[in-house]
Write a structure and sequence with these properties.
It is built from five helices and 34 strands. It is mainly β and 530 residues long. The chain folds into two domains: 409 residues, Beta-galactosidase, Chain A, domain 5; 102 residues, Immunoglobulin-like. The longest helix has 12 residues.
Length: 530
Amino acid sequence: MFTKDRRQFLLGGLSAGLAAAMGSGARGSAASQGSAPAAAKPATLELGEPQPFDFEQLRVRARAASHAGYLEPAPAADIVHSLNYDASQKIRFRPEYTLWRNGPGRFPIRFFHLSEYVDRPVRIHMVTGETSREILYRPSYFEYGDAALAGKLTANLGFAGFRVMSGRKLESDWLAFQGASYFRTSGSQNQYGASARGIAVNTGLSTREEFPCFTEFWLKAAAESPSTVIIYALLDGPSVTGAYAFEARIDHGVIMEVDANIYPRVDIGRLGVAPLTSMYWYRGNELRRPLDWRPAIHDSDGLSLWTGQGERLWRPLNDPPTLQTNSFLDSHPKGFGLAQRDHDFDHYLDDGAFYDRRPSIWVEPRDDWGEGAVQLVEIPTDDEIHDNIVAYWQARAPVRKGATLRYRYRLLWQADDPPPSGVARVVATRLGLGGNPGQPRPKDQWKFVIDFEGGELRQMKPRSDVEPVVTASRGNVVHPHCIKVVGKTIWRAVFDVAMEGRDPLNLRCFLRLNNRALSETWSYQFFPPE
C-alpha cells in the first residue's frame, strides 16, 4: 500500500473529477444516497443502477468532453483535510468488502480512502459483460481506529483509488492507481518504486505543469484470462481529456497493454506520452554527494533507449544543480524506459526501502509513433521523498486543439530493462579527479570510468584492440583506453576530459572492435563541481 513517501508529497492536492462536465449516468438508487448500512447487514458492496458500457462509448464520451469547457471539481469535504499522515495510517479497508474476493479471476481488489495527500475522489465501477455498476463509497467499508472520526464521514465521500491484490489471502498488492493519473506495480521483486501516469502536460517548462486526473475507473475481470485485470479510465484536465484501457497481467514481472486515446482541449506546448516518473538522488561515487550514511539512494539509475535506427543508449541519471531537460531525437522508436540496473544490496544498505529491489519500467510502442524525441527531465532534489525524474515521448508534430491522438504501447515492469541484443551494456559509471595517483593532479581535468558487460565481450579474452570511442561536447579527451577487469567478465573504458569552466559537459562512449560496435552507447551529462 502507499505510505508517506514521495508519491504522497507529489500527488497531494491534485485535482480529479469529470462527472459534472460530462453528465454521466445515474449514481444509483435511493439507497445510494442514504447513510451507512447497519452493522447487522451482510458485508456487500453497495452498487448503483446498471448502465451500458463499452470502450468505444468511453472514447465518444471523452471526445465530446474535450469540446466543452473544463469545470474545476468541487473541493473535497473539510473532513478529508483532517486525515493527516497519522490518521490515514490508522484507516484499513475491511477485508469482507473486497471486490472479487471469491472470483471471478485471480486478483481481488481493495480501495484507498481519501486523505490530505490524495483529496479528490474518483468514481469506480464494476463491469460485467456490457453492463457497469458504480461501487458506492460507504464509511462502513473501512476501519478508522477512531470512532468519532467514522461518525463524521458522509456516505458519499468517495474513494481515492484502488489496488489489485496478489491473491485471495489479501497479503499484498501488485498494482495500484491513486492520485492524478499515476499508477505503479511492484514488478518481479514485490517492491514498489518508479511510477507511470496517463499523460504529462507541460513538464519542465517555465509555466506551471498540469496534472490531468483519472476521474472514473471501470474494473473488469477477463473471463478468458483469469490472470488478467482490465481497467478502463476516463481522464480529465484543463488542457486535455482521454479514454484509456489497461490490460495487466503478472508474467515475469508485470506486463500491461495500454490503449491511450487523447483529445486536447487547447493547443499544448509539450505533451508527454507514456510518461514515467521516478526518484534519483545520488550514487556512491559522485563528486557532489549529500551527507547520508547510505552509499546510494535512487529508484532508477538510468534512462534506457532503443532508437528506430537500432542503436541502444544508456543515460545515467543525475541530481542536477538546476532543472535540466534533454531531448533524444528519434524516428519510429522501438522503446525507452527508466531502469534500476544496480540490484546489489551492498550498494544501498537500506533494509527498509530496499532500493535494490525497485523495478525497471520499459515502454514498447505497439504502433509507429513517427518522429519526435524521448525527453528526460531532471529536477534538483535534496531528499529521497521527491520524485524528480520524468521521461516521456514527445511527438514532433504540434498538438492542436480538437485533435484525436491514439497511442498504443506495452509497459514492462521487470527487474531490468530488456538487454540489448548481441552487444554489451553499461553496468557502472564512476568518476573522479583526472590524472594519475601519486602525481600532481591536472587542474580542470576529470576522469570517467565506464564498465561494460555482456555480448561478445563476455567470452572475449584480454586484447589491446578493443577501443573506447569517446566524444565530448567541449574540452579535450585525454588517453582513452580499454581493459578487461582481471577475474571478471567486465570490460572497462577509462579516459580523462580536460576542460575549462563550469558549463555542463555532454559525453558519449561505446566500445568498438574493427569498426564494429561491441556495446550500447553510454551518454552522460556531467556538471563540474564548483
